[in-house]
């Protein structure tokens, strides 16, 4: 493995996913190691987002196995809600709760799931807001924020549960170009702090700069994987070469 | 057609009837909301039996006139129960509330369902991804937003329910129309009396609309238009 991070955090074995009769994931094997930042790139319709959404079972897999921290989440006996508490997710469309203030958005899960008292959650929320540079917006509603600000709040909300894995599903794709940077900066900081991250992205600059490993997906499979240098400077697979020629 | 006479003679009776109209409406709407929520959640649950029960309930209640439902509740059901408990009695007040609340409940169930379906799927996904179980996601994230989407239709149903109390005059509930009928029986002041009754309803519904507008305004929050899909 290219990365020096060796403790396996997520293991995916022979993952298949069908939507009706349409096979979107055609047998994926992958491992993600603790502290690793893995970017998943590839053309639209390649199954990147579906793959990511299988990792916390927002998408039910058709067959195969996903093991997270030694919990087989495909096992019916494993409480998926408990596993999800340790996996933060950030969505393309932010999905903030529009009827709650920014602070309440962040506090909701830790309080409802009895991870923290109200007071602890509030402190945590303010801490996280400071970290994403939005302390002064704590009482605002999501609708009053720009897209970039909303996405930073969404990251803070996911971090409030103290997850040790973060999933990002095209976090900058719905943003105006001038707001992409502020979100990527927060993500870079997170990566530098050693968070295990799986990022589906079209931001090739980010993938090259931040990731330990890049997975290239096409047609429901991982076509090629390697360090950013390997993938971007010396791609072996024809599909990878073709894709990179179009996007770079 | 002596409006002055009706005003002085009938007003005390009509006000008394109005009290009952308001009382029955409020209680029935409160119970109806509860029934509606439960039926809505049953209809949307994964359990096929719960779904079927809710489906049949909504189908039967919406498919039959409330007058017939009132007759069944008030005259029919006690007859059956008396076979086992001969001393059983059901007064018009209780029967009226039962009829009106099961009636409103069926319509409210569909209103709530529409509201829930209007909440974007991403809201559920965000809550579930944080580790919230299904029930908590529904109670804390989806329902509050669904309720807001439902308000216009809810107010509409409340208005209908208030007016539907008049149907209950047929089982002898002493609400405002019933009182008016009694009065015109003695006075033959049909026109003036029923105009007054109509005005009472109009005033009542107007108050309801003012209150609902206020609530709707209070619940309004900035909602950013989502770009893309």
Topology:
The complex is a heterodimer of chains A (248) and B (229).
Chain A (H helix, E strand, L loop, with lengths): L7 E12 L2 E12 L3 E5 L6 H8 L7 E6 L2 E2 L7 H6 L1 E4 L11 H11 L5 H14 L15 H13 L5 E5 L7 H16 L3 E5 L3 H7 L2 E6 L2 E6 L1 H6 L4 H10 L1
Chain B lengths: L2 H41 L4 H16 L2 H19 L7 H27 L2 H9 L4 H31 L11 H12 L2 H30 L10
Helix coverage percent of chain A: 25-40%
Give the termini distance of chain B in whole angstroms. Answer: 64 Å
Question: How confident is the prediction overall: mean pLDDT of chain B?
Answer: 91
- Describe the sheet with the most strands of chain B: none
Estimated radius of gyration of chain A: 18 Å
Helix content class of chain B? over 70%
Mean pLDDT of chain A: 94
What string, H for helix and E for strand, traces the elements of chain A in order?
EEEHEEHEHHHEHEHEEHH
SSE class of chain A: alpha/beta
Q: Biggest interface between protein chains, with counts per chain?
A: A-B, 35 and 26 residues
Beta fraction of chain B: under 5%
Poorly predicted runs of 5 or more residues of chain B: 222-229
Secondary structure tally: strands of chain A: 10
